[in-house]
Amino acid sequence: MIYLDNAATSFQKPISVKKRVIYSMENFSSPGRGGYPAAMRAAECEYHCRELAAKLFNCSDPEKIVITSSATHGLNIAIKSLVHKGSRVVISGYEHNAVLRPLHAIGADLTVASSPLFDAESAFQAFASAIEKGTDVVVCNHVSNVFGFVLPVNDIAELCKSKGVPMIVDASQSAGTIDVDFEKLSAQFVAMPGHKGLYGPQGTGLLLCKDTAVPIMEGGTGGNSLMEDMPDFLPDRLEAGTHNMCGIAGLDAGLAFVIKKTPEAIRAYEYKLSRILIERLKNINRAEVFEAKHDQSAVFSFRVRGIDSEILADSLGRQGVAVRAGLHCAPLAHKTVGTVEGGTVRISPSVFNTTQEVLKAAEIIEQTVKKLR
Fold first, then answer.
1. pTM of the model
2. Which tens digits make up the pLDDT trace of 76-118?
3. Which of 38, 143, 308, 359 has a CA that sits 20 to 30 A from residue 271's CA?
4. Candidates 3.40.50.2300, 3.40.640.10, 3.40.50.300, 3.90.950.10; CATH matching 15-261
5. For a pLDDT cut of 70, what percent of the chain falls above it?
């Protein structure tokens, strides 16, 4: 299989991640639930995972890094900590349903700072204009999971800071490949998955917290057991229940892999692979490739007029090329760009793909398009 769906999950993991998961099953109990060796080893691994995340994302206090089950989990905590019914919230035109659905459920008053694809300056101006009209919270993804558009979150964060508006950043598609500097961002929260660019197992995520937050789940934390309420300090306040130590151990190894390789090197390699594919796909008759020389990650989308995107992706899958088609849980992004009818086929390489693989994938896509016509 030629796996090109890493924007969904990095299916191919470093061997160190797999080994660490197996080791954890054989050697770790639950952290904070005892002083015996298996429990202590688990606690040490858990804290080491926070330390590595703090190093990678420039977070001064590892205990401000909350371990979650996904970016969606983290975004729900962040949104429900800051947003209330009627709150005026500004979002980009490229947000995922992990942002839209919690905001809708709360009953927030939404303003979409809509801007053209791959136009960072227009995106910033759209936020500036919307914030000037009065805003309680800003939520913005760093990179569109559909088109790979890199939004100017650092500039938007500076604007929010100057206006005293708290900001939530969805780093689902940037963590591990594009610099995420928590101290520089000055965002209230940054949420990310562990299973994408950080190469950890599914069921893991991180939430970087500037201050405390509102728990969305209550329960045991391994300490302060006489308290009827959740502790008022991080990370315990947001980490009720037994931890996913297999996932945390794998994430710890994934973070180490990214730090050693560096996000800059990973992005450069993945971007090179995506450009090879883009140049080939642009030559397909009636193909529309959504690409830019600037403000784009290695993730990109395309469609072929006259061929349903889902049918094309399904046919490619049967031939061993794994891509994703449809609306990618981000209908707002498709509405913004004008692809909501039929969606797109999304391609997202990883550091484990090779030039030979992407060339083979391009050949299969070309042949498949001819057959489907």
1. 0.96
2. 999 999 999 999 999 999 999 999 999 999 999 999 999 999 9
3. 308
4. 3.40.640.10
5. 100
18: phi then psi, degrees, rounded to nearest 5: -60, -45
Mean pLDDT estimate for the chain: 96
Which amino acid is located at 28 in the chain? F
